[in-house]
Amino acid sequence: MKDFIITLDGPAGVGKSSLAQAVAEEMNLSYMDSGAMFRILAFELGPEALDMSDSELESRLQAFRFSVQGAGKNSVMCCNGRYFGDEIRSEEVAALASRLGANAVVRAFLCGAQRDVGMQSSLVCEGRDMGSVIFPHALCKFFLDATPEERARRRSRQLESQGKIADYSTILDQILTRDAKDRNRKESPLRPARDAILIDTTERTLDEVLELLLAHINHMLKPRAPEHE
Ligand code: DC
Fold first, then answer.
1. What pLDDT digit, counting tens, does each position of 14-31 carry?
2. Domain coordinates of the chain in residue numbers?
3. 126, 16 in Cβ contact below 8 A?
């Protein structure tokens, strides 16, 4: 593992991607979106993946090679040299990604792929288990949370700003369903690492949270006076 790994974990819609990108940009690090890796597998394998035997799934997964290209806010997650954009951002793909995320074969495969990326470059990475499972020795670990209602409001505003249909109660339902799946699965459930810094973002703007994250990171990086006997 490279020396410099910062992890941001938390539930759907809490602002992890925007914040991880902003921290990566500020610190000139690469940004790894682990959710995109689950989404790419969901998009490429489709719902049939849920019915595959472990050995079939294992052999299909061997065809996926992940890498992060670029740095800062321009970092993108690629698979077999291809960038996946809007096609993996639908709620259907997210729901299938969440179901695949409960599968031990998928998690073991992506755990290896994520650690490989961490061997190549210093990173800001975001997901559900970056600090608790994938990079337990990360320099700085954050767990972000906000009420489901606030996350649904943010998602609706984001969709509206993109000119898309955004029904608040449908979005809230989707968030609650995905939360339950991500938090209650047996394999790497969504939960803070023991040494994670917890930040409730419900009443904070993105800029306020970013300021907090950077203050914690800078504090961790400050040279410490040597301890005397
Ligand atoms: O962060 P996201 O919404 O793009 O993630 C989509 C789904 O992928 C999420 O609901 C659960 C799964 N996931 C996971 O299990 N572990 C991760 N580290 C990231 C995502």
1. 999 999 999 999 999 999
2. 1-29+123-215, 33-121
3. yes
